Amino acid sequence: MFIMKRFLLILCVACGTFSGLWAQRSISGVVTDAATGEPLAGATVAVKGADTGAVTAADGSFTLPVAGDDAQVKISYTGYVVQSILVGAQTRLDVAMEPGSLIDEVVVVGYGKQIRSTLTGNIAKVSGEQLHAMPVVALEQALQGQAAGVYIETANGKVGAASRVRVRGVGSINAGTEPLYVIDGIPIAKEKENTAGGPLNPLADLNFNDIASIEVLKDASAKAIYGSRGSNGVIIITTKTGQAGQSRIELDLQAGTSTPTGRREFLNAGEFVDLFTEAANNSDDIEGMAYDDPNSWTDFVMRRFTRYSGRNDSWKERVDRTDWQEEALRQGSVGNSTLAFTGGTDKMRYYASGNYGFTKGILVSNDLEKYGGRLNLDFNATSRLKIGVNFGLSRTLTTQVSDDNAFSTPMQLVAMAPITPTRDENGQLYDRPVTTYYNGLIDVEEASRRVFSTRTLTNAFGEYRFNPALVLRVEGGANLLNVRDNAFYGRRTDAGNASNGAAFAASSNTTAFNTNAVLSWNQEYGNHDLGIDLGTEFFSSDNVYSYVFGEGFPVDDLKTLSSAANITDAAGTTTEYRFLSYFGRARYNFARRYLFNASARVDGSSRFGADNRYAFFPAASAGWVLSEEEFLKDNRALSFLKLRASWGQSGNADIGNFPALGLFGAGNYNANSTLQPSQIANPALTWEKSTETDFGLDFGLLKNRISGEIDYYVKNTTDLLLQVPVPATSGFTTQFQNVGELENRGWEFTLNSNNLVGRFSWSTSLNLAINHNEVLSLANGQTLIDDSGSRYANVVKVGAPVGEFYGAEYAGVDPANGDALWYINNAEINANLKATTNDYNQAAFVELGSPLPTFIGGISNTLSYAGVTLDIRFQGQQGNKIHNGAGGFMSCNACWFDNQTRDQLDRWQKPGDQTRVPEARLGYSNGDQSRSSRYITDGSYLRLKNVTLAYDVPTRWLHGGGFKTLRLYATGTNLLTFTKYQGWDPEVTTDFLASNTVYGVDFYSAPQPRTIVGGIRFGF
Amino acid sequence: MHKIKKMRLHKIGLTALVLAFALAACDKKLDLNPAQSVSEELALSTDANVKSVLLGAYDALAKDGLWGGNALRDAELLAADGELRWVGTYTGPREVYNKAMIASNGEAEDRWTDAYDAINRVNNVLSALETVVAEDRAQVEGEARFIRAATYFELVRFYALPYEATGNNSQLGVPLVLRPTRGIDASSQVTRNTVKEVYTQIVDDLTGAKGLLPAENGVLAGQYVATALLARVYLQMGRYEDARSNADAVINSGLYALVGQYADEWNNDDNTSEDIYAVQISSQDFGEATLPVFYSIPEFGGRDGDIEIEQKHLDLYEPGDARLAFFYEGAGAVRSGKWRNQYRNQPIIRLAEMYLIRAEANLRLGAAVGAAPVDDYNIIHTRAGLAAVATVTLEELLLERRRELAQEGHRIHDVKRLQESVDGLAYNDPKLVFPIPAREIGANPNLQQNPGY
Q1: Contact yes or no for A338/A374 (Cβ under 8 A)
Q2: Is the model's pLDDT at A222 over the cut of 90?
Q3: pLDDT single digits (tens) A884-906
Q4: Taking residues B237-241, what's their average pLDDT?
Q5: Which residues contact A702 (CB under 8 A, 6 or more apart)?
């Protein structure tokens, strides 16, 4: 890279021969709102083609040096139409700004910016204001439902749980499906870094009050500039920068509480005793056993009741000793504060902030605390050179609970019997054999799982303007992430029980560097507007991981590994990957009417074999602004109309490192080291490619008071990096191959409308997306990838969406005998596919629905009057199914001793009963097979995602208070959920399974929190 | 003007040159190698490396699907017959216990996958014998072939209908894969060999291993380890003379001796004098030895006490039997003492079994090679603290075998060999045979599924 930097330096010198001299004078004026006449503070006034500019002061005034009479001044302010004015000879310039529409907004594109009206690609923008003050932990949660075609799911209600984002559908099967995140120019990996428990969201440390805007690049034209890493879309996060003008200080404080969005109903003590007694009687009947026989199921169940009661007969009183669900859940709380300083002069601008926040989760012993700071600075070092640095430091402490599959996770407490007290007479928590399973409350008292995450995100840039047209921007960034995971399990806990306590300490250090240089040339010749960008980028990331596990602690108070008697496990690994890229983009528009855009990127990655290391990713797009044509120019109703089309290719290399090599790994046996085959070679392995075509229409009606976008896209992912199942008789189970094809196609609609303007204003913003996901082909001869085992049902199947549920089709209960029935669905056994069987093995597996929604959307309405603003946002999805993977435990008509959901009381009891719940038979399988449509239900939902009521106290009342603005607000998230799903919450994928191909599985997954906070925002 | 142009051209040339250097320098930056793995070529390139791969094959044999524990556990669950009860939540073992496996049963998949992993490791070793120093070559080959035989023996007994001593055994066994995998192609789509062919391969490998191995080899496979396993294989095949001669050879090797107290054979960190082959487990092998996980209780590192011993089993023992006293009560049920503590060696073949094989073969053959059946019986019987007997019937001897080897993974194989029935199922009922894993049929359509799946 040193040589490359030298090259760029030479380039700088080589090009630095242009310059010109103009006579300098200055103009001044005031910028106001055309509707109200109020001055606008912070508006940008810039001389076109030069790097001089000013920002209006509190009274809307500015003074700006200009050169020559032909200078053009551009005045912009967020939310208003940009104006360009020829200065001429005047020295005074007062500007009234028209409230603008989104058509005129500036949008961040890859390595640059553009005005929306000239875009030929599809980019969704969410402004920082739309995220502000949302009382959620992670950015993605705030983004949910705000951008068309961007599907966001948080696995469960655990604090800091990983979120999954899918732009225009699931784009891969085994390679990554998460979009590329670029924060201030630095690509950020969003991988699990914690060692135990469910995956945490590494982006939870981002304070989203620092965010100026988020752009989601969706179509090929927009994202191809990110080449090999763009196939799943790109999310560009830009943090705030200072504005020249008067400095501002803002303090935002909020606090509130949260409760679970839903609960399940379980049997109470009396129902529990009755149902299980009945189940035991039924099993005895099958075996011809007398109920009072000491070997009978009935006798067995009575002994169990006694055991579960704490070895006494109290169960006969049929009184609830514990509501275990309430032991797992609690009222949580939230507090957040941000203090931000922003301002600057025409030479230097700054944004500095500090934040602290805590979230006490709705699950016992699940908390998060974060604090961080940010300093963004930029200087005009000379009239040609601008330099800047964005520096963010954040620290997050998550107190985790185990993943959903562990007995120790709070939600698994619901399996316990209601006749079991939590504690014995000495106040000690009961454990097995009194509790049915390990009592997870012991973990609450005697285990700790703490994950500390520290991130430094630094980006420095220099921008040199050789002349008004030619700019070189060089950026260098570093993302340093250190995640320390420390756990201690006391001697009564599940994990520490056998070994007098256990503990581990893990540390994961990721160091990523990124440098890029982009040379941009932009020039207007009359109606011709041309732009060319050439750039190069180098990215390198390495990870060093170490892990130590020890057992045998003298007392529970000594929790660190130095006190362990026995170090029983350790690991230390290092790995790295790199990308080297060259890219170019050309842009041309004629009279803002005909728009053309082409880009190409060449990427090399260390992840592939030397022969297939480089790939080329082209894209092209065009737009036609019909409203600029003569025949539409004067149309009063239709103020803007643009047709767009784009085509392009992007890639995906988001797989583990070194997948192409034939490898042997190390192990040990009998304290000696071993070598064993670990991976089978595939030297031909290369990128996964996606080819995307997009047709779009942008429109504005009634002076753009109503504006919107409609898009249709087809995205084909080919040469899938597929972990192809190979015959295990080879000694391997999978091999990465480039085979198979996946399609996502769909429609996106965005509509923004200012329904009412004036003193009482009302605006609506709507986004809807329909996505059709289909696996077109897999490896040769392969139609199905089924790694789900017998409990879960997600598969990858040709002709179906990724993650399709696949299992036996439940046919209800035989009214004659209470047997669970399934449809045979196999013509080889019975020509009538809908013939039923009570033998689960006879029933062929069939497609049972998709966990992916076909339809997602959000709608928000903002009403304001006299400083009071009410914002109401709904978000929802439709067409997806949810599989309750724990149904075979909690809803199995008392097949074993897990407490049952109350719907099991509908069980079959006597011939003729019509029900979907089979006869209760303890110890027998009667419909408890998990991979069955019995446990798959509709997961569509509509959620009142966010309501914010805010009051901006009028400025005139604030005089003397020491501050300029004051906003009081109350905001709530996940306030109401409308769904047919009977579980805790329909936004769910159990954390221990969630992957590219597993969605919509509930397994003791915590409900999402419903949070209500009150806040206050001071401006000084 | 002309001059400027010329200068520019010059600069473009220079720029191109710099660019070319930059590209070359950066391209090299993409050459990265993994830090935790080595290439195939390197792994098999030296004597020491091949021996490491061999040790890797031992480790594969010690995986949970095989002798790490679940092969022993499932042989007992399949033959539970009211003597033990599975009360755990895991679905896979529960289906095994209920004889209601489905083709995607996780245990069926794990065992198959672990076994062929072990076989591929062995085949890698065998493909690189030339790299091994000459003086060790025979031993390395012998050890590798022992592991392959042991693995195929587990496979053929779980995934195929039983070997019939009097039949032609043309029923489908498992695919015989005898070469290392270097790539995936059409030849990877193997078909199942017959049970007879698989047994022939097992016998051939063990016979070969016997001739290649030194008498002693620490805790790894020596000559008498292969001999002992061969005795077990022959017994399964009903070849009593061969079973007896091999068992007799092990007993007479003088390398092994019964421990004094029955309880002393179990939960040890080091091999006992009675152990012929034991899987080596230390606290470094967290989660790899699964017998205590399922048989034991939380206080000793087990799960919730997933396997309970039932009265019907306890009724098999006479009062005063040390083996009866060795059961213990914990977490509300009776537990096997054998697999109580985590991180302890797991005996797989022990001398007591050799006495029982020799006695049974002699008894069936009306012979007394090595010792009279009753004398062998008494060696085992009196060690359990019981009085010697004067005579012994086959029935009594087989009952002694059940008591002595209880919960050690012999039961279902004995049921099949002795053509008994369990839980109302005949010895050759397809429900007592594991399914070929569904994922395997999916990846290789050439594989024929077992009946009933």
Answers
A1: no
A2: no
A3: 999 999 999 999 999 999 999 99
A4: 97
A5: A637, A639
Sign, Cα dihedral of B223, B228, B229, B233: positive
What's the gap in Å between the CA of B45 and the closest CA on chain A? 12
SS3 B218: coil
What is the distance in angstroms between the CA of the first residue and the CA of the last residue of chain A?
A: 45
Confidence (pLDDT) at A868: 93
Cβ proximity of A200 and A193 under 8 Å: yes
DSSP B283: T
- How far apart, in whole angstroms, are the C-alpha atoms of residue A61 and residue A27? 11
Nearest to residue A949, comparing CAs of A928, A971, A929?
A971
Does the structure's ipTM exceed the value 0.85? yes
Query: In the structure encoding, which two tokens stand for residue A949, read together?
Result: 């009521």
- Distance (Å) from the alpha carbon of B80 to chain A's nearest alpha carbon: 15
Pairing state of beta strands A614-625 and A594-605? antiparallel
User: Sign (positive/negative) of CA torsion A21, A23, A24, A26?
Assistant: negative
Query: Other CB atoms closer than 10 Å to residue B16's CB: what's the count?
Result: 10
Instruction: Please report residues of B whose CB lies closer than 8 A to that of A10.
Output: 11, 14-15, 18
Please indicate if any CB of chain A lies within 8 Å of the CB of B322.
no
Q: Do A580 and B105 touch (CB under 8 A)?
A: no
Query: Per-residue pLDDT tens for A920-945?
Result: 999 898 999 999 999 999 999 999 99
Question: Is the Cβ–Cβ distance between B239 and B169 less than 8 Å?
Answer: no
Of A1, A11, A669, the CB nearest to B59: A669
Decide: A884 and A935 in contact? Cβ < 8 Å. yes
- Report DSSP state, residue B183: S
- The closest alpha carbon to A346, from A375, A376, A378, A384, belongs to A378
Look at B104 and A786 and tell me if their CB atoms are within 8 Å: yes
User: Is A704 within 8 Å of A639 (Cβ atoms)?
Assistant: yes
Instruction: Give the strand pairing for A784-785 and A868-878.
Output: unpaired
Choose between A963 and B14: higher pLDDT: A963
| Interface contact flag, A663 B91, Cβ < 8 Å | no
Name the least confident of A429-443, B54-68, B81-95: B81-95
Judged by CB atoms closer than 8 Å, whether chains meet at A574 and B35 is answered as: yes
Please indicate whether, in this complex, the C-beta atoms of B56 and A1 are within 8 angstroms of each other: no
Is the CB of residue A564 less than 8 Å from the CB of residue A579?
no
Cβ-count burial B290-315 (b if 16+ within 10 Å, e if not) = bbbbbbbbbebbbbbbbbbbbeebee
Bridge partners (DSSP) of residue A849 are: A805
CB within 8 A of A446, min separation 6: which ones? A489, A490, A491, A492, A493, A496, A556
